[in-house]
């Protein structure tokens, strides 16, 4: 009988400790989940920003890099190339590169002044 009482006391103590740990740990786990979700959102964005800064330091860009940095669709650039339009580019074999200075010149030539720009 005495052993049964000791066993029940141990079980009660164990249950009390589990409950207390759970109550204290739950807010921490919620906070960790929130931090993880924030990092999932921010992580790629900051990596993307760093990658774009690295691309901007290059002299010549691929059509995909032009799209990432300047927002000119790579497919549109390819279409313009076939028509002899668009920004000046370099072609070496099958590789197409756009000098950044030519992209800037192309965009500047298409700048439209509005009445508010006087």
Describe this structure in words.
- The structure is a single chain.
- Helices cover 69% and strands 8% of the residues.
- The protein has 118 residues and is mainly alpha-helical.
- It is rod-shaped and about 95 Å long.
Q: What are the key terms here?
A:
118 residues; mainly alpha; Molybdopterin biosynthesis moea protein, domain 2; 3-stranded antiparallel beta sheet; 4 helices; 69% helix
Runs in which pLDDT lies below 50 for 5 or more consecutive residues are none
Order of helices and strands: HEHHEEH
Q: Percent of residues in beta strands?
A: 5-15%
How many structural domains does the protein architecture include?
2
Number of strands: 3
Gyration radius (Cα, Å) is 31 Å
Structural class: mainly alpha
Largest sheet: 3 strands, antiparallel
Q: First CA to last CA: what distance?
A: 98 Å
What gross morphology would you assign? rod-shaped
Strand order of the largest sheet: 1-3-2
Q: At CATH's second level, what is the architecture of the largest domain?
A: Alpha-Beta Complex
What is the typical, i.e. mean, pLDDT? 86
Number of helices: 4
Identify the CATH class of the largest domain.
Alpha Beta
CATH topology term of the largest domain: Molybdopterin biosynthesis moea protein, domain 2
Helix amount: 55-70%
SSE layout and pairings?
Layout: H1 2-56, E1 60-61, H2 63-70, H3 74-82, E2 90-92, E3 95-99, H4 100-109
Antiparallel strand pairs: 1-3, 2-3
Helix pairs in contact: 2-3
Brief overview:
By secondary structure, this protein is mostly helical. It is built from four helices and three strands; from the N terminus they run αβααββα.
């Amino acid at each position: 009988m005495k052993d049964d009482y000791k066993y029940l006391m141990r079980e009660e103590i164990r249950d009390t400790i589990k409950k207390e740990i759970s109550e204290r740990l739950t807010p921490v786990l919620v906070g960790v989940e929130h931090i993880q979700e924030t990092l999932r959102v921010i992580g790629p964005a900051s990596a993307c920003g760093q990658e774009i800064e690295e691309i901007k330091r290059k002299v010549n860009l691929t059509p995909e890099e032009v799209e990432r940095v300047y927002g000119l669709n790579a497919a549109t650039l390819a279409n313009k190339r076939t028509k002899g339009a668009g920004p000046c580019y370099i072609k070496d074999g099958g590789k197409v590169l756009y000098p950044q200075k030519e992209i800037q010149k192309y965009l500047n030539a298409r700048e439209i002044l509005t009445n508010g720009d006087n």
